[in-house]
Write the structure tokens for this entry.
Amino acid sequence: MTPQKHSEIIKQVAKLNGFDYCGISKADFLAEEAPKLEKWLKSGFQGEMSYLDNHFDKRLDPRLLVPGAKTVVSLLFNYYPEKNPVETEYKIAKYAYGEDYHTVVKDKCYSMLEQLRSQLGDIGGRVFVDSAPVMERVWAEKSGLGWIGRHGLLINKSQGSYFFIAELIIDLECEPDGPVKDYCGTCTKCVDACPTEAILPNKTLNASHCISYLTIELKSSIDEKFSDKMNDWIFGCDICQDVCPWNRFSKHTNEIRFEPVEAIGYSKKDWEQLEKEQFDRVFKHSAVQRTGFEGLKRNISFLKKISTNS
Ligand code: SF4
Ligand code: SF4
């Protein structure tokens, strides 16, 4: 079978498993990314996320992650929910409304890999969903699924940026796709809207200032300098995506496992009264577990203190 035919089958199987877009790249060293990544890490923009300092070489070369790797298959899975947050209540990022995407999207990737093996033979490879040193946005961009916007996220021209990105890194030779154009143009809406000035020129994100980092990754207390900038976000932040003109084209997800949990309708008072037992029940299978009950309470108390003082 030819590499073209392999790519064709992979794309059909991706569609059958519910992926919205699938693009293919040759597994190779990301030469252009090496100096950018080094500079970003040296600037300390990763904050307390010290795990990003590790596996520098593996991050840049998928063949070091998966021996014999020939192809990176990038997959996009839409999570854009029907329900919108109430501006005056506490908010959590849309990607965390339903069941944890790691589980949901990984299940689909494994099913896809199994189906590929039944059609194409004993393919060696691994599945990645935001869980290992893979530069997922770079691979998705290389394989033509979109471009990396000023806010650092992948934008698909037909459907915006509310996607999870997954990869299959496999030892099967395939016909690669090429990149698409960058359509940010002269727009700076995300830069202007970011309340913490985390989006810097040259598409650099100072992650240590991003509300997503402050509410999820940061283990110590949130610096008071952010007190008037949190905009009621208690887990993640969607501001830069919400203002992006390309998200006019977002379509609601059909994935039943991303149905919002009951907390998505909570009032501020409900969140402030949230107890551990309730948290464990409501967020049992949720990505919100990442910050944990104590972390979420810290975020809520930080915001509550601000509103009490103002
Ligand atoms: S997620 Fe929020 S804080 Fe982070 S870069 Fe986007 S707008 Fe800024
Ligand atoms: S808001 Fe504008 S600059 Fe920012 S990512 Fe979207 S198109 Fe690009």
